[in-house]
Amino acid sequence: MSLAERVARAVDAAPIVDLHTHLFAPQFGALNLWGIDELLTYHYLVAETLRAEPKVSPEAFFARDKAAQADLVWDALFVRRSPLSEATSGVATVLHAFGLDPAAKDLREARAFFAARRVEQHVEDVLRLAGVTALAMTNDPTDPAERAVWEAGVAPDPRFHAALRVDRLVSSQDLARELDRWIARMRPRYLAISVEEVSAPPRAVLDVCRAHDLPFAMMIGVTRAVNPRLGVAGDGMRAVSLAPLERLAAENPDVRFLITTLARENTHALCVVARKFANVLPFGCWWFMNNPSLIEETTSMRLEMLGPTFVPQHSDARVLDQLIYKWRHARRSIASALSRRYAAMSVAPTDAQIERDARALLGGIAGEWLGA
Ligand code: HDL
Ligand code: ZN
Fold first, then answer.
1. 277-303 pLDDT, tens digit each
2. Core-most of 74, 189, 278, 369, by most CB within 10 Å?
3. Sorted alphabetically, which Gene3D superfamilies does this protein's record hold (predicted)?
Protein backbone atom coordinates (compact mmCIF):
# COMPACT_ATOMS: atom_id res chain seq x y z
CA MET A 1 0.00 0.00 0.00
CA SER A 2 1.39 3.47 -0.86
CA LEU A 3 2.02 6.11 1.80
CA ALA A 4 -0.90 8.15 0.41
CA GLU A 5 -3.20 5.12 0.66
CA ARG A 6 -2.07 4.38 4.25
CA VAL A 7 -2.71 8.00 5.23
CA ALA A 8 -6.11 8.10 3.50
CA ARG A 9 -7.11 4.89 5.31
CA ALA A 10 -6.16 6.34 8.72
CA VAL A 11 -7.83 9.71 8.03
CA ASP A 12 -11.02 8.04 6.78
CA ALA A 13 -11.15 5.87 9.92
CA ALA A 14 -10.48 8.70 12.40
CA PRO A 15 -13.57 9.71 14.43
CA ILE A 16 -14.59 13.35 13.89
CA VAL A 17 -15.31 15.91 16.61
CA ASP A 18 -16.89 18.82 14.73
CA LEU A 19 -16.13 22.05 16.59
CA HIS A 20 -18.53 24.35 14.71
CA THR A 21 -21.91 23.65 13.12
CA HIS A 22 -25.33 25.30 12.92
CA LEU A 23 -27.01 21.95 13.43
CA PHE A 24 -29.54 21.21 16.13
CA ALA A 25 -30.11 17.95 18.01
CA PRO A 26 -33.31 16.17 16.90
CA GLN A 27 -34.90 17.25 20.21
CA PHE A 28 -35.04 20.80 18.74
CA GLY A 29 -37.73 19.67 16.27
CA ALA A 30 -38.07 21.86 13.17
CA LEU A 31 -34.75 23.60 13.92
CA ASN A 32 -33.06 20.35 12.89
CA LEU A 33 -32.85 20.85 9.11
CA TRP A 34 -32.41 17.83 6.81
CA GLY A 35 -33.52 16.50 3.39
CA ILE A 36 -33.16 17.53 -0.25
CA ASP A 37 -35.13 20.79 -0.16
CA GLU A 38 -33.06 22.06 2.79
CA LEU A 39 -29.85 20.92 1.07
CA LEU A 40 -30.72 22.80 -2.12
CA THR A 41 -31.84 26.02 -0.43
CA TYR A 42 -28.56 26.24 1.57
CA HIS A 43 -27.54 29.89 1.25
CA TYR A 44 -24.35 28.99 -0.63
CA LEU A 45 -26.50 27.49 -3.41
CA VAL A 46 -28.94 30.39 -3.36
CA ALA A 47 -26.09 32.82 -4.07
CA GLU A 48 -24.74 30.53 -6.81
CA THR A 49 -28.19 30.22 -8.41
CA LEU A 50 -28.83 33.97 -8.39
CA ARG A 51 -25.43 34.43 -10.03
CA ALA A 52 -26.12 31.78 -12.67
CA GLU A 53 -29.63 33.11 -13.34
CA PRO A 54 -29.38 36.94 -13.15
CA LYS A 55 -32.87 37.30 -14.68
CA VAL A 56 -34.24 35.89 -11.42
CA SER A 57 -34.19 38.68 -8.85
CA PRO A 58 -33.46 37.83 -5.21
CA GLU A 59 -36.91 39.13 -4.33
CA ALA A 60 -38.58 36.86 -6.92
CA PHE A 61 -36.53 33.89 -5.73
CA PHE A 62 -37.42 34.39 -2.06
CA ALA A 63 -41.10 34.88 -2.97
CA ARG A 64 -41.18 31.22 -4.05
CA ASP A 65 -41.88 28.50 -1.48
CA LYS A 66 -39.00 26.26 -0.43
CA ALA A 67 -39.82 23.44 -2.85
CA ALA A 68 -40.07 25.86 -5.79
CA GLN A 69 -36.75 27.43 -4.76
CA ALA A 70 -35.17 23.96 -4.63
CA ASP A 71 -36.55 23.07 -8.06
CA LEU A 72 -35.00 26.22 -9.52
CA VAL A 73 -31.63 25.57 -7.85
CA TRP A 74 -31.62 21.97 -9.10
CA ASP A 75 -32.46 22.96 -12.67
CA ALA A 76 -30.00 25.88 -12.79
CA LEU A 77 -26.97 24.30 -11.11
CA PHE A 78 -27.37 20.53 -11.57
CA VAL A 79 -29.38 20.01 -14.80
CA ARG A 80 -28.44 22.89 -17.08
CA ARG A 81 -24.93 23.21 -15.64
CA SER A 82 -22.41 20.79 -14.12
CA PRO A 83 -22.22 20.69 -10.29
CA LEU A 84 -18.62 21.91 -10.26
CA SER A 85 -18.75 24.20 -7.20
CA GLU A 86 -17.98 22.76 -3.75
CA ALA A 87 -21.55 23.32 -2.55
CA THR A 88 -23.14 21.66 -5.60
CA SER A 89 -20.66 18.79 -5.64
CA GLY A 90 -21.47 18.31 -1.96
CA VAL A 91 -25.15 17.72 -2.65
CA ALA A 92 -24.16 15.19 -5.31
CA THR A 93 -21.93 13.43 -2.72
CA VAL A 94 -24.84 13.23 -0.26
CA LEU A 95 -27.27 11.86 -2.87
CA HIS A 96 -24.72 9.29 -3.97
CA ALA A 97 -24.10 8.25 -0.35
CA PHE A 98 -27.81 7.43 -0.02
CA GLY A 99 -27.87 5.56 -3.37
CA LEU A 100 -29.80 8.35 -5.12
CA ASP A 101 -29.12 9.66 -8.65
CA PRO A 102 -27.14 12.94 -8.60
CA ALA A 103 -27.87 13.30 -12.34
CA ALA A 104 -31.66 13.08 -11.96
CA LYS A 105 -33.62 15.57 -14.07
CA ASP A 106 -35.95 16.43 -11.17
CA LEU A 107 -36.31 15.90 -7.42
CA ARG A 108 -39.08 13.28 -7.33
CA GLU A 109 -36.78 10.36 -6.36
CA ALA A 110 -34.90 12.36 -3.75
CA ARG A 111 -38.04 13.83 -2.21
CA ALA A 112 -39.67 10.38 -1.97
CA PHE A 113 -36.55 8.99 -0.28
CA PHE A 114 -36.29 11.69 2.37
CA ALA A 115 -40.08 11.74 2.96
CA ALA A 116 -39.88 8.08 3.95
CA ARG A 117 -37.08 8.64 6.48
CA ARG A 118 -37.68 8.66 10.25
CA VAL A 119 -35.67 11.52 11.78
CA GLU A 120 -34.17 9.49 14.66
CA GLN A 121 -32.82 6.85 12.27
CA HIS A 122 -31.72 9.51 9.79
CA VAL A 123 -29.61 11.23 12.45
CA GLU A 124 -27.91 7.92 13.29
CA ASP A 125 -27.28 7.18 9.59
CA VAL A 126 -25.85 10.62 8.82
CA LEU A 127 -23.50 10.64 11.84
CA ARG A 128 -22.33 7.12 10.92
CA LEU A 129 -21.82 7.93 7.22
CA ALA A 130 -19.93 11.14 8.13
CA GLY A 131 -17.92 9.47 10.92
CA VAL A 132 -18.88 12.24 13.36
CA THR A 133 -18.93 11.20 17.04
CA ALA A 134 -19.60 14.65 18.56
CA LEU A 135 -20.34 18.15 17.35
CA ALA A 136 -20.93 21.67 18.64
CA MET A 137 -24.15 23.47 17.78
CA THR A 138 -24.40 27.28 17.51
CA ASN A 139 -26.80 28.41 20.20
CA ASP A 140 -28.16 31.96 20.21
CA PRO A 141 -30.58 32.65 23.10
CA THR A 142 -31.73 35.85 21.38
CA ASP A 143 -33.29 33.73 18.62
CA PRO A 144 -36.96 33.40 19.63
CA ALA A 145 -37.50 29.94 18.14
CA GLU A 146 -34.41 28.47 19.79
CA ARG A 147 -35.01 30.30 23.08
CA ALA A 148 -38.48 28.75 23.32
CA VAL A 149 -37.03 25.23 23.03
CA TRP A 150 -34.46 25.88 25.78
CA GLU A 151 -37.09 27.41 28.04
CA ALA A 152 -39.33 24.37 27.49
CA GLY A 153 -36.56 22.30 29.08
CA VAL A 154 -34.98 20.54 26.08
CA ALA A 155 -32.38 17.83 26.80
CA PRO A 156 -30.25 17.57 23.64
CA ASP A 157 -28.76 14.30 22.36
CA PRO A 158 -25.41 14.16 24.26
CA ARG A 159 -23.46 14.08 20.99
CA PHE A 160 -24.80 17.58 20.18
CA HIS A 161 -22.92 19.98 22.47
CA ALA A 162 -24.03 23.56 23.07
CA ALA A 163 -21.85 26.52 22.10
CA LEU A 164 -23.11 29.89 23.35
CA ARG A 165 -23.04 32.40 20.48
CA VAL A 166 -22.84 35.95 21.87
CA ASP A 167 -22.91 38.11 18.69
CA ARG A 168 -26.26 39.61 19.70
CA LEU A 169 -26.17 38.79 23.42
CA VAL A 170 -23.27 41.22 24.03
CA SER A 171 -25.66 44.15 23.58
CA SER A 172 -27.80 42.95 26.52
CA GLN A 173 -28.48 45.41 29.35
CA ASP A 174 -27.15 43.06 32.02
CA LEU A 175 -24.69 40.93 30.08
CA ALA A 176 -23.14 39.22 33.10
CA ARG A 177 -26.56 38.05 34.29
CA GLU A 178 -27.57 36.87 30.82
CA LEU A 179 -24.30 34.93 30.44
CA ASP A 180 -24.72 33.24 33.83
CA ARG A 181 -28.34 32.39 33.00
CA TRP A 182 -27.62 30.80 29.63
CA ILE A 183 -24.43 29.03 30.75
CA ALA A 184 -26.48 27.44 33.54
CA ARG A 185 -29.25 26.41 31.10
CA MET A 186 -27.25 25.34 28.05
CA ARG A 187 -24.03 24.05 29.70
CA PRO A 188 -22.08 25.28 26.63
CA ARG A 189 -18.62 23.87 25.86
CA TYR A 190 -17.37 27.25 24.60
CA LEU A 191 -18.53 30.80 23.90
CA ALA A 192 -18.28 32.18 20.36
CA ILE A 193 -18.55 35.41 18.40
CA SER A 194 -18.06 36.39 14.77
CA VAL A 195 -16.41 39.73 14.02
CA GLU A 196 -14.95 41.70 11.15
CA GLU A 197 -12.06 43.38 12.99
CA VAL A 198 -10.53 41.76 16.08
CA SER A 199 -11.38 43.56 19.32
CA ALA A 200 -11.45 42.51 22.95
CA PRO A 201 -14.88 41.16 23.91
CA PRO A 202 -16.74 42.74 26.84
CA ARG A 203 -14.99 42.02 30.16
CA ALA A 204 -17.97 39.94 31.32
CA VAL A 205 -17.38 37.46 28.48
CA LEU A 206 -13.75 36.77 29.41
CA ASP A 207 -14.72 36.70 33.08
CA VAL A 208 -17.21 33.84 32.56
CA CYS A 209 -14.75 32.00 30.30
CA ARG A 210 -12.24 32.06 33.18
CA ALA A 211 -14.82 31.25 35.84
CA HIS A 212 -16.16 28.23 33.93
CA ASP A 213 -12.89 27.35 32.14
CA LEU A 214 -14.59 27.72 28.76
CA PRO A 215 -12.72 28.52 25.52
CA PHE A 216 -13.67 31.69 23.63
CA ALA A 217 -14.05 31.29 19.87
CA MET A 218 -13.51 34.28 17.60
CA MET A 219 -14.49 33.89 13.96
CA ILE A 220 -12.68 36.77 12.28
CA GLY A 221 -13.09 38.65 9.00
CA VAL A 222 -16.81 38.55 8.21
CA THR A 223 -18.51 41.66 6.80
CA ARG A 224 -22.24 41.26 7.28
CA ALA A 225 -24.80 42.16 4.59
CA VAL A 226 -22.55 43.42 1.78
CA ASN A 227 -25.56 42.58 -0.40
CA PRO A 228 -28.61 42.73 1.89
CA ARG A 229 -30.93 41.58 -0.93
CA LEU A 230 -29.44 38.08 -0.56
CA GLY A 231 -30.42 37.78 3.09
CA VAL A 232 -28.31 35.20 4.98
CA ALA A 233 -26.40 34.67 1.70
CA GLY A 234 -25.40 38.35 1.60
CA ASP A 235 -22.32 38.39 3.86
CA GLY A 236 -18.80 39.16 2.65
CA MET A 237 -15.20 38.83 3.79
CA ARG A 238 -12.32 41.12 4.79
CA ALA A 239 -8.64 40.47 5.44
CA VAL A 240 -7.93 42.17 8.77
CA SER A 241 -5.00 42.75 11.13
CA LEU A 242 -4.45 40.05 13.74
CA ALA A 243 -2.34 42.39 15.91
CA PRO A 244 -5.27 42.85 18.36
CA LEU A 245 -5.46 39.05 18.68
CA GLU A 246 -1.82 38.95 19.80
CA ARG A 247 -2.63 41.51 22.50
CA LEU A 248 -5.74 39.59 23.56
CA ALA A 249 -3.83 36.30 23.85
CA ALA A 250 -0.93 37.98 25.67
CA GLU A 251 -3.20 39.80 28.17
CA ASN A 252 -5.32 36.69 28.84
CA PRO A 253 -2.87 33.76 29.06
CA ASP A 254 -5.39 31.85 31.21
CA VAL A 255 -8.10 31.97 28.52
CA ARG A 256 -8.11 29.53 25.61
CA PHE A 257 -8.95 31.09 22.24
CA LEU A 258 -10.43 29.11 19.34
CA ILE A 259 -9.67 31.15 16.23
CA THR A 260 -10.68 30.84 12.59
CA THR A 261 -10.25 33.47 9.87
CA LEU A 262 -12.40 34.00 6.80
CA ALA A 263 -9.78 35.59 4.51
CA ARG A 264 -7.21 33.38 2.80
CA GLU A 265 -4.79 36.29 3.36
CA ASN A 266 -5.12 35.82 7.15
CA THR A 267 -4.23 32.11 7.15
CA HIS A 268 -0.45 32.59 7.42
CA ALA A 269 -0.76 35.35 10.02
CA LEU A 270 -2.90 33.08 12.21
CA CYS A 271 -0.23 30.37 12.02
CA VAL A 272 2.34 32.89 13.29
CA VAL A 273 0.09 34.02 16.15
CA ALA A 274 -0.51 30.37 17.10
CA ARG A 275 3.27 29.80 17.20
CA LYS A 276 3.59 32.68 19.67
CA PHE A 277 0.62 31.78 21.88
CA ALA A 278 -0.21 28.22 22.98
CA ASN A 279 -3.63 29.51 24.14
CA VAL A 280 -4.57 30.19 20.51
CA LEU A 281 -5.95 27.17 18.63
CA PRO A 282 -6.59 27.58 14.89
CA PHE A 283 -9.73 25.59 14.04
CA GLY A 284 -11.02 24.81 10.60
CA CYS A 285 -11.26 26.42 7.17
CA TRP A 286 -14.27 28.65 7.69
CA TRP A 287 -17.06 29.30 5.11
CA PHE A 288 -15.34 30.81 2.02
CA MET A 289 -12.21 28.87 3.04
CA ASN A 290 -14.11 25.56 3.11
CA ASN A 291 -13.04 24.45 -0.37
CA PRO A 292 -10.72 21.53 -1.24
CA SER A 293 -7.96 23.69 -2.72
CA LEU A 294 -7.91 26.03 0.32
CA ILE A 295 -8.26 23.24 2.91
CA GLU A 296 -5.23 21.50 1.41
CA GLU A 297 -3.21 24.75 1.21
CA THR A 298 -4.21 25.79 4.75
CA THR A 299 -3.57 22.38 6.30
CA SER A 300 -0.15 22.17 4.61
CA MET A 301 0.75 25.62 5.92
CA ARG A 302 -0.45 24.75 9.44
CA LEU A 303 1.41 21.42 9.50
CA GLU A 304 4.60 23.13 8.31
CA MET A 305 4.34 25.84 10.99
CA LEU A 306 2.56 24.13 13.89
CA GLY A 307 2.99 20.38 13.46
CA PRO A 308 -0.10 18.33 14.42
CA THR A 309 -1.24 20.79 17.13
CA PHE A 310 -4.32 22.42 15.54
CA VAL A 311 -7.81 21.47 14.34
CA PRO A 312 -7.77 21.29 10.53
CA GLN A 313 -11.51 21.48 9.93
CA HIS A 314 -14.99 22.18 11.22
CA SER A 315 -17.99 21.62 8.95
CA ASP A 316 -20.06 24.77 9.58
CA ALA A 317 -22.95 22.56 8.45
CA ARG A 318 -26.45 24.05 8.53
CA VAL A 319 -28.27 20.99 7.18
CA LEU A 320 -27.69 17.61 8.89
CA ASP A 321 -26.94 15.70 5.65
CA GLN A 322 -24.14 18.17 4.82
CA LEU A 323 -21.96 16.44 7.44
CA ILE A 324 -21.53 13.60 4.93
CA TYR A 325 -20.05 15.72 2.17
CA LYS A 326 -18.28 18.35 4.24
CA TRP A 327 -16.33 15.66 6.05
CA ARG A 328 -15.76 13.29 3.09
CA HIS A 329 -14.36 16.19 1.08
CA ALA A 330 -12.32 17.59 3.98
CA ARG A 331 -10.81 14.19 4.81
CA ARG A 332 -9.49 13.96 1.23
CA SER A 333 -7.82 17.38 1.42
CA ILE A 334 -6.41 16.77 4.91
CA ALA A 335 -5.06 13.36 3.90
CA SER A 336 -3.39 14.89 0.85
CA ALA A 337 -1.65 17.59 2.92
CA LEU A 338 -0.67 15.09 5.61
CA SER A 339 0.78 12.65 3.04
CA ARG A 340 2.97 15.37 1.61
CA ARG A 341 4.40 16.17 5.06
CA TYR A 342 5.05 12.51 5.85
CA ALA A 343 6.80 12.14 2.47
CA ALA A 344 9.12 14.99 3.49
CA MET A 345 10.13 13.16 6.70
CA SER A 346 13.57 11.57 6.65
CA VAL A 347 12.17 8.47 8.39
CA ALA A 348 8.90 7.02 7.06
CA PRO A 349 6.10 6.93 9.67
CA THR A 350 4.67 3.64 10.90
CA ASP A 351 0.97 2.89 10.47
CA ALA A 352 0.55 3.38 14.23
CA GLN A 353 2.11 6.85 14.04
CA ILE A 354 -0.10 7.82 11.09
CA GLU A 355 -3.20 6.59 12.95
CA ARG A 356 -2.14 8.45 16.11
CA ASP A 357 -1.69 11.72 14.21
CA ALA A 358 -4.90 11.34 12.19
CA ARG A 359 -6.96 10.66 15.32
CA ALA A 360 -5.49 13.72 17.04
CA LEU A 361 -6.12 16.03 14.09
CA LEU A 362 -9.62 14.79 13.22
CA GLY A 363 -11.05 14.46 16.71
CA GLY A 364 -8.58 14.23 19.57
CA ILE A 365 -7.52 17.87 19.88
CA ALA A 366 -11.03 19.15 19.17
CA GLY A 367 -12.40 16.71 21.72
CA GLU A 368 -10.04 18.00 24.41
CA TRP A 369 -11.13 21.63 23.79
CA LEU A 370 -14.80 20.65 23.54
CA GLY A 371 -14.61 18.45 26.61
CA ALA A 372 -16.28 15.76 24.45
O1 HDL B 1 -21.19 33.27 11.51
C2 HDL B 1 -21.08 32.06 11.20
O3 HDL B 1 -21.01 31.12 12.04
C4 HDL B 1 -21.06 31.73 9.73
O5 HDL B 1 -20.68 30.37 9.57
C6 HDL B 1 -22.42 32.02 9.13
O7 HDL B 1 -23.39 31.22 9.81
C8 HDL B 1 -22.49 31.77 7.62
O9 HDL B 1 -23.75 32.19 7.16
C10 HDL B 1 -22.30 30.33 7.26
O11 HDL B 1 -23.21 29.53 7.35
N12 HDL B 1 -21.10 30.01 6.79
O13 HDL B 1 -20.83 28.73 6.38
ZN1 ZN C 1 -20.90 29.16 11.14
1. 999 999 999 999 999 999 999 999 999
2. 74
3. Metal-dependent hydrolases, uronate isomerase, domain 2, chain A
Q: What is the mean pLDDT of residues 16-45?
A: 98
CATH number at residue 40: 1.10.2020.10
Confidence of residue 319 (pLDDT cuts 50, 70, 90): very high
pLDDT at 176: 98
Give the span between the Cα atoms of 245 and 104, in whole angstroms: 48
Beta strands in 76-190 (DSSP E): 132-136, 160-161, 164-165
Q: Which amino acid is at 145?
A: A
Same domain for 104 and 210, yes or no, is no
Q: Find how far residue 367's CA is from the centre of its chain.
A: 15
87 C-alpha vs ligand 2 centroid, how far in Å? Answer: 15
* Residue 124, domain member (yes or no): no
φ/ψ (deg, to 5) at 165: -90, 125
Ligand 1 atom with least separation from CA of 316 = 13
Q: What domain range includes position 189?
A: 3-31+131-370
